[in-house]
Fold each of these.
Amino acid sequence: MTAPDDSTGFCWASVVLTVLDRAPLLAVPRRARIVCAALDGCAPDAPGRLWGYVVLPDSVRLVVGPADSAALSAFVERVKARAAAGLLAAIRQGEDEAALDAVLRFNPVWGGAIYRVWAAGFHCATLWTEYKLSGALYALRRAPVSAGLVARAEDWPYQFPSQASATSW
């Protein structure tokens, strides 16, 4: 899925990338750090500004922009490709069969084994106003608490900016 077509040009966006079959692939700290590193590496190429992200066990949420839909789609695909390359390398090196089962698909028509980390496309919510942007950033910070992963948002290590600098948003 591409970003929504906007006739007025640029806007902010709240984006959700989902792991294939909602598998908790990113629950392992090493893999979550790989995704954080991929996001940090792609941040300079972000259309507009990468306002923040949070890595959850089965998804990645980020707020980016202002950007047009084509630039946003290209950025998200770049992030997915970079993160998938790092994750697949780590999974193939490790001894975690459950993780390998989550990413391995076999079909003779496709040429045998295919490794896929991300579900196709991404979910995107357009944020037209600064009020919507601030609400999306608040929801981003609170996502680990809402998911029941931690009691306080400050305790979740896989996010940017860190909670210490979140007041500067």
Amino acid sequence: MTGSTLFSIEKTTNFERSFKKLVKTYKSKSKKQEFIRVISEHLEKLIINPYPQSERHEPLPKGIELPDECQFYKLVLNIAKGASGKIRLMYLVWDKKRVINPFWIYNHQQFEKRPPDREIKDVIQETFEGKSIGRENTKNQIVA
């Protein structure tokens, strides 16, 4: 994507909430810091390329439609062994606006496949209503 405009990250309140909950699953300070670092790196990579090979186009919950310029994805991150190391990041990509809305991050222990459709639908609707908590596009601001 050389020469193209970078995307920016607009985190949602649900992303922040789910991220904090996930960080708490790490007992030691060093494990928490490592987890934050790894997730920050993955979000920074999304700014350059919101369509990495490990992402997959995610089916929408019934009863919701996205605008044509918006797509729904789930990124699968295997950052450690075991169920707690299988991290999933759900996000929306707005190509025309060059914006990525991460709205849910969870591990395999929290949801074996994905959160309930009703909850995903509610969070996507909140994102449409502009309930994001801030735009980030520089290193170390993405997750912190």
Amino acid sequence: MTTNENKNPDLETLVLEIKNHLNVVNAALIQPEDFSAASYDDIVELHEYVKKKQGKLTLMEIEGVLDELRSLRQSK
């Protein structure tokens, strides 16, 4: 992907994949539209981390990812 492309569709895909890998009870709280393109690089890093763990995240790791997602969410 080039830096000139619109990153929003990819951001949505990344957030949805992270959400699916986390297997959290209240996954409805994680919505792609809550994140801006400005947080794209951080979302990519989280996605790579979660994908690398292949669904074998510890509870502490899940909490850490959720905390990071919470900090990246846009204020409404």
Amino acid sequence: MNNKEFGKQFEKRTKTFAIKIIKLSASIRNTTESMIVKNQITKSATSIDANFREANRS
């Protein structure tokens, strides 16, 4: 596997991971505490994919 193939595969995996986390956070009850956790975990999961894509396009 070369770098280009790895990059495409990794981008796909990080996008899938972000989607799974968003679905998980949607299933958590809406309490004050859970809203904080949901917000933070969603930001963290989606930033991985966004940062990887940005690094590859520059």
